[in-house]
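Q: For a teaching handout, I want to show students what a protein-ligand complex looks like in token form. Below are the inputs, and the small molecule is iron/sulfur cluster. Please produce the holo structure.
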Amino acid sequence: MNVTLKIWRQPDAASEGAIHTYEVADVSPDMSFLEMLDVLNEQLNDRGEEPVAFESDCREGICGNCGLMINGEAHGPEVTTTCQLHMRSFTDGDTITVEPWRADAFPVLKDLVVDRGALDRMIQAGGYISVNTGSAPEAHSVPVPKDDADRAFNVATCIGCGACVAACPNGSASLFLGAKVTHLGLLPQGQPERDERVVNMVAQHDHEGFGGCTNIGACTAACPKEIPLDVISQLNKDLRTAIKHGH
Ligand code: SF4
Ligand code: FES
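A: Here is the structure, written as tokens, with iron/sulfur cluster included.
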């Protein structure tokens, strides 16, 4: 396959960026999108040009580092992470536009790399859970209903990639936040600090400049882990309860 790439290039956070056009030849349909970008970077290196900066780590869909806006869609045309997107999802001769996540709370650092530290600061604002450390407790000593355990496990699969924020017209991180709050709120270990946690995390969300949720649903459609939209209802419910309790 031969593809034309229109890629956002920006030397650093303070500089203006622009779209640059590159041709990449001999792309295998079995390459991942990131492997195709590796090929481009080898070509740029050979020509003595600056390679395109982009993030990746695991390349297995589990670390959340690799988000790109591909043809206007977070992580591209499949429900997966950018590293698990393969070139067979495109057609020979395609022109593909590649941009960084676009959100006020995710400033561009260079080319396709954004600072997603705001998500980490929200987790930090959530604080600790007061469980005893030491050896693992006996598995049946704290019973958890099966439905709760399954849902907690499902929402805990959020990898913090930020696609939900990039896809949302409001730049809201409500799906991410809802996943984190729901995960701990369903488990006995999450109860003692439950009210404080949701209040502090929502305050940090707003402080970071993320927008509010208006129930559009673009977040859940873009989420590679298919986190359901109703975690945002749970988030709102937990926040109302915490406020009722005087937080
Ligand atoms: S909710 Fe989904 S899209 Fe948002 S950070 Fe988690 S995994 Fe990524
Ligand atoms: S590089 Fe880890 S999820 Fe894509």
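A: Two things your students might notice: Residues 101 and 144 are 37 Å apart (CA to CA). The mean pLDDT is 96.
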